[in-house]
Every structure is written in structure tokens, then in C-alpha cells.
Amino acid sequence: MPSKAKTGKKLVIVESPAKSKTIAKYLGEGFIVEASIGHIRDLPQPSELPAELKKTSLGKFAVDVENDFKPYYVVSPDKKKKVAELKAQLKDADALYLATDGDREGEAIAWHLLEVLKPKVPVYRMTFGEITKEAIHRAMDNLRDVDAALVDAQETRRILDRLYGYEISPVLWRKVARGLSAGRVQSVVTRMVVDRERERMAFKAASYWDLTGQFGADAGSFKAKLAAVDGAKVATGRDFNDDGELTSRNVAHLNEELATSLAAALQDADFRVRSVDTKPYTRRPAAPFTTSTLQQEAGRKLRFSSKSTMQVAQRLYENGYITYMRTDSSALSDEAVTAARRQAAELYGPEYVPQSPRVYTSKAANAQEAHEAIRPAGDSFRTPAQVAKQLSGDEFRLYELIWKRTVASQMGDAKGSTATIRLGAVASDGRDAEFSASGTVITFPGFLAAYEEGKDESRGDDESDDARRLPNVAKGDALAASDILAVGHETSPPPRYTEASLTAELEKKGIGRPSTYASTISTIQDRGYVRKQGSALVPSWIAFSVVRLLEQHFTDYVDYEFTADMEGDLDKIANGQAAGTAWLKHFYYGEDTDPGLLSIVNNLGEIDAREINSVPIADGITLRVGKFGPYLESSLPTVDPKTGEVMESARANVPEDLAPDELTAAKAVELMETAAPEERVLGADPHTGHTVVAKNGRYGAYVTEIIPEMTEEQLANLPVEYYKNGKPKPPKKPVKAKPRTGSLFKSMTVESVTLDEALQLMSLPRVLGQDAEGNPITVQNGRFGPYLKKGTDSRSIGSEEEIFTITLEQALEIYSEPKQRGARAAVPPLAEFGPDPVSEKNIVVKEGRFGPYITDGITNITVPRSTSLEELTRERAVELLAEKRAKGPVKRTTTRKAPAKKAAAKK
Description:
This protein is about 30% helix and about 20% strand. It contains 25 helices and 38 strands. α7 packs across α15, α7 crosses α16 (about 540-555) and α9 packs antiparallel against α14 (about 500-510). Residues about 365-370, about 820-825 and about 890-905 have low confidence and may be disordered.
């Protein structure tokens, strides 16, 4: 067969369309750049396997656990068309360049493309850390083969996650709730958030007092705080443990009485300077961004969620503005170091650049140095001003942050001096009181001229003395005292994690990969394990149940060190130091005294679901995690104050917005005492005989009917169906009739609603009649109040009570008038949060057709159902608007008929 004629075309495949457009500009003629749009194939759901494979060793996981854990891959249904297009392009190409990302995921995409496309032309692996002309040309000069070790590591991780999730999740379904999921990293991250909430729940506050005063000298005045009494250091929050106990020895623990009396005794005291200590101050710049530190700093400074940060960074990378955004490395290339030093000298002066370049290495556990740090793209950096018109608001803010951090990383140290003044006096009651004040003066800003790193909230932080200039005083100088006040304090519990602080802790412990932190944090929120309260991450009660079960029965699999060690093992596979198959065998089947996952699942024993889903709150009061949410149950007999009836087991719903650490014993007693009855029987419907009850549900009070189960006699009398051969079919389980329900009006309660009112509510919608064209008109209650409905035309009416009194004539009169759109009196916003940091327009919350929504007049975002208006903060509103902007406008798709193709010639 004659060889195929050369066409001169070269096919380049990348992951995303945006990336393909940018690269195409730099490669020029002869190159066709196409996007695979992510992975083209993956493990199917076991239910999607061919029938003949479902009963084999592949059937449980779509992974053959009996034959070296060989995975069964399928091309995703939505990628079949794309694969066909790529094959068609490859037919006319002389070479194939696989230019997917250079990490494990990108390497795996390249390998899958190779396996599916089966090219008969030369294949080259091409990687680059930034999408610039220089980087693309350097990549063409450094082509290689697909890295089998990286592919093995990614495949091992994918199979590992499938084994973990598919073996452990069903246990959660049986013992906690259907639909829950367990994940190798997800479950450990959930445990971290739960552990922090447990610490807060167990925390006992301690009180302590100190003094502050204003002190003046000829050179000026300053504020100082009491440091010691009679030579003993004054106790601060750092001297107490989480049980409220004083742990430091030889400290003076002042209470209100002691502090107040000391303040009074010092009013006329003779204060003098006892010592002045001055030390040089030096501060070095932070390293350039890794994936983890970028997410942390964007969260602190820009209020971006981890997910938003990565979405915006992805767009900046794909359009050639920054280097690859998934990296553990803080190192810069020689070209980048030169660019940063040159730009710092140009913008701030040569004195701001040290003589030698700064070199950074990663400090995180399990760090991979495979990539460069995240920095502006190119061998010379564009300033934020040069790209401002080309980027959206969020893109510009993130680019500016990356640019500042990169340039600052190659600038000189900030220098200055820190002075500490100790001053004291003897009080009128004989006690010696010593005060202290510190201040730092920056004499050379160095890198601070460009950038300063943010900080997370931490306990025991004293008031900052940074940049406070103290007067020039000397030992023995007299000082005039004023405003000497006793100040009370309480120790604070450990702060809840924010996305930024959780990301930092994950990196510190070596759990997971920074490239997956954003999706993991998003997943535990989507699963209902964690919600946001402002910027803080608060676990749900169902997360407590899940973590408790995993800790008791799958101890290693939520252990922090065990999980970090797994990441280390995957690194060894990626480096070619271990084989994925052998590692998976040990993980799943175990070895000698080390049981594998299979053995643990098969020998779980009896799990007490009630105990797993119970948390003692107070004497006789237990929180239960039930099918419809958390509730309190009292084991002590309770007397109903209205009926006098003794209830053996009273219950009370737990408000959804009540954080676990806020459910104290006192709060539990309050909820039990104020709980409305869960259910009240109203009577029987005279037409059906069904019992009608009023209930307090998770989403409000409602009425419903109880439809009795069919008796055995009724089931026996059901008609029998037959097969074609005349044999009777097995009896079908009867379909349960759906009970009628109706939400109570605002004026009704479970205690007050009557049977007649309940029957009316369950009869809605109410048919009023028809208009002249025969269109039916109904009236009903909705989320936004009562309304009329005629086809797709809805009209609001006055009050809920009008639902049962409005007539057809009144309805027709309303419909005869033009529909009011925007002509109503202006409705005041539900909340106001001041100007948005991006648009600089006021942020307000309004009531919309689909519920409350946040808007700055440009961008709108619905308030999440998990967030009540009461707990919505400015920070959360800014974050939600930022996430919506990061997604960009919704793209409208149009369907075009593809041109007819000639049938391929059969070979």
C-alpha cells in the first residue's frame, strides 16, 4: 500500500478552547490546534457496564480487582462527537502534538488521547508553564514522550478514589442517610472542620483583667498596657487552656476587683520610665504564589472563594496572562527573576532591589517542584495598568495580586527599629505596677512598597503596635498619667476555619493536593457537610454523624497522617519509585497484620445507627440526626403546659441556622420549653374518612391527610395480571396515593388551625370558573403570596384570606386591567451592605420572583437557600457577587444543522 502523501499539517491537542485560541496565534501556519475539552474517557458507573461484564470482577467498581486492578474505560457520551472530530483532523495530519497540561491530570489526558486516537503518525508530548510566544517556542525545542509514571500515579489515584468511595459510602447510606458520600480527601477535610467545632463546643472561657493608660512626656504621649504587678507578669489569654484553667506559673491573674482597685490606687502615682530597649527590625518578602498560597491570599484580600480564585486564574492562564496555576513550587525561572528585578528597579528605584536574586523553595509537606510559581506570563511582565482594559474586574484584581507578589518577592527587606518602653509606679496601696508599650518604625519599606501579605485570624493576638512611633524618652524620665482604666477580657475559642485558613492547614498537614483544594472545599459544602456563616466554615450535624462513624469503624481512612502518607506514596509512583498496581493491592487486600479496605468493610460488625446519630447536649436531652434533619429529644417525662398531658419523649426541631457550638445545654432547654407540638390530630375528613393532622415541618407548619395502608384482604382482591403464556404475574406493590397537603396561612398555627380550615387548605388550588374564551381561572397560595392563575398569566391578590372569598367576577375585573410591571410603589431593599469593592456601586438584597437576591445594579446572584437573610453578611454578599462575576455571562447556544458528510470509503 502506498504511503500517505505528506500534507504539511500538524495537529496540536490541548484541553480547553480558550487555550487553543491563544496557542494558535503563536504556532502560525501549518498547525491545527484543537481542544479535547478535558478528559475524553473515564471509568463508567458500574450500572453502565455491558450486561456481560456486570457479573464479573469488574462489576462492582468498573475496575478489575482480581486482575491487577485493570480499569475499564469508556469514552464519555458527550465526548464521542469530539473524538470523531479529532480522528478526522488526525487523518490529514503528518504529526500529532499532545499539548495538555504538564501535571498528572494533563499527562493522563494525553495518554487517553493516544489510546483512543491510535495515531499512525509521529507523536510528541509538548508542555509549557505559560502561554506566551517564547514559552511555546521553547516547548517545541523540548519535546518528549508521554510520561508513563505520571499516568500511573493519576490512574492509581482515580482507582483509589473509586475503591474508597464505593466501599465506604454505602455504609453511610445504611447508618446515617441516603445520598451521602465518603471520599479519600473529602472525608478528612470534613473531619478537620468537625474537630474544630468540637473544640469550640468543649471550650470554657476564662476571664482576666488588665489596665491601660495614656502617658505623656515632653516629646509626646502614648498608650501603654499593664505588664507586671509586683514583678509578676500579668496573665493574658495565652496563659489559659481551653478548659479555662490558668496554666502559667508565677503570673498575676487579676479579677475585676483587683484590677479596679489597682487603677484607683494609681490615679495620683508618680510614673517614670524604667527602661528603653531598641532593636533593629527586618522583614523579608513572602515567596511567589503557589496554588495554595494564591487561594489563601485571594480569600483574605479579595474575598474570593477558593473555587472563584481557580476559575479566574484558569482564564488568566489560558489567555496568556499568568503561568500555570496548579503548582506546589514557589521557584521562579531565571527569566522571571530577571523580569521581576528589572521591573522593581524601574518602578521603585535600584536601591529597592538586593544585589543577589532571591531563591525560594517550598516548605509544604509533600511539595512537588514540577512547576514554576504562579507569576505574570512572559520574559518581561506587563504591569496591571497595561492589562487593565483587557481584563474583567475580578481578572484584573487577581492579576494585580499575582503581579505585586511576584515583583515584591525579588525586592529588598523592609528595615526599621522596634522600641519597647517599660514604665512604672508604686500605687497608693503599695503594689508596684509596670506598664509596657512597643512600636515599630519602618525606615526603609523595601518590598512593602509593592506588597504586604495578609493574615488569618488567630487567638491571643494582642493589639498591633506596628508602625506606631513612640516618643523619644530616656530611663528615669517622669511621665504624666491619665485615663488609667481597668479592662476586662475573656479568652476566645479556636476560630473556625475559613477557606483560606483551611487551605493553609491542609497544605501544612500534606493532605490532598493544592490543585484539588478548591473542588474539595466546594464538594463538602455541596454535600451539606459544611456551610458558610460569613466567611467561617460551620459543620452540619450530619457531618458529625458521618465523621463519628468513620472515626469508629474506618479509623485510618480519616487519620491525618495516614492520608498524608497516601499522598507521599502517590508521589513515589509519579517519580517511578513504586508501581501503582502493587500499591493498590496492598491498600485493598492488605498484607500480613495490616488489613486492607476489603477486610475492614467485610468485618465491620454491628453498627448502632442510633448511637452514631446521637449527641448528648444536656442532662436528659440528646440531639438526634434524623431523616428530615436534626432534632432534640428529651428522655425525661415532660408535662405539656397547655394540656397537662405527660409526654414520655418530647421533641423539638433545631433551627437550621444554629451552629453546633451555639447549641448549649441552656439553649437546648429553651428549645424544648418553647417547642410547638410536632403533630396535632384535627379529626377525620367527612368525605374520605382519612385522618387530618397539623404538623410542624422543617420548612414550616402544614396540614395533611393520613392515607391508611391497604389491608391484606384489599391486596388479595387486586386484579391479577397474566403473562402471554397464561401464567399469573407476581403481584405488584401498590403505588402509594399522594396525600393532600397545604401550608398554613401566616395567621394560623398548629395549635389554632381547625379541621374546616385544614380541609380548605388541602383543597387548593380553588377553581373560580372560566373566562369568555373558556380558560380556567384558579386562585392559590405561593411562595410570594396569594395569586390568580389563568394559563401562564399570574396576578397577585391582597391577603391569604381572600383566597377563599374572591369571586370569579372580581378575578375577571383584575384580568381586565393591564398587567402591572414595575409600576408598583418602590419596595425598600431587604438589606444594604454599602459599596461593592469592584463595581463601587451599593450592594442591596431585594425580593425577586425566585426569592431574595443580591445585586450591585450590574451583577445579580440569588441568596443561597442554606443562608438566611439574618446571617447574610457584607463579606458573604461580596463573595457571592465575585463568584457570579467569575463565572462570566451565561453562554447561549444555537443549534446548527451539520453539513452532510461523504460516506467514508470502505477499506
